[in-house]
Write a structure and sequence with these properties.
By secondary structure, the protein is mainly α. 49% of the residues lie in helices and 11% in strands. The protein has helices at residues 25-49, 58-63, 70-90, 103-113, 116-129, 175-178, 182-190, 195-205, and strands at 134-141, 144-151, 162-168. A 3-stranded antiparallel sheet has the order 2-1-3, sandwiched between helices. The longest helix has 25 residues, at 25-49. The protein binds manganese (II) ion (MN). The site of manganese (II) ion has 7 residues, from helix 1.
Amino acid sequence: MNLCYPFVNTHLPYAYNALEPYIDEKTMELHHDRHLQAYIDNLNTLMEENPQYQHWSLDKILMNNSCLPPTLQTPFKNNAGGVYNHRFFFESMTDHKDMSPGPCLSSLISRSFQSLDNFKSCFKKTALDVFGSGYTWLVLCRDGLAITWSANQDTPLSQGQCPVLNLDVWEHAYYLKHYNRRADYIEDWFHLIDWHRAEQRLECCF
Ligand code: MN
């Protein structure tokens, strides 16, 4: 996702209703067309006001945030993070439901979590523990796979971790269908994981 200004809201890789019954059409439409669009618009405005950064990619803005002037660090982090995290999240899901992890991920999941079921249970616990708004991540670190979380629109990129999957646990991601039941949303999301995409991302980490 090495994209530069001007940022555009690309289409989802599936129809708005393709993730039913686990995530409903209206949620996907609002999430993509309103929430992600707002981060894209804000990021483009920031770039228009600070043209010296227009050649910076999304990854560069996030990985080199501390190189920006102090007054620009937070708005760039929030809006570039909002774009990066949402695209990553939407592309972590597929309408080919109930896929299984590929060979490389299967072996790393066994090594780091013993089993796929235990991975899901650890991931769910972390996702439930995110207080307020944020994301849960599966990342590759030096020691293997790990589950982490980030607040607001922070990303693991600045921590030197290589992200493989993320789950948006902001309430706008599930409130229309699941109301306040984040646990049900997490369980539903497990059916939608694009394990093929995750395997491709993992290969890019090495
Ligand atoms: Mn979101």
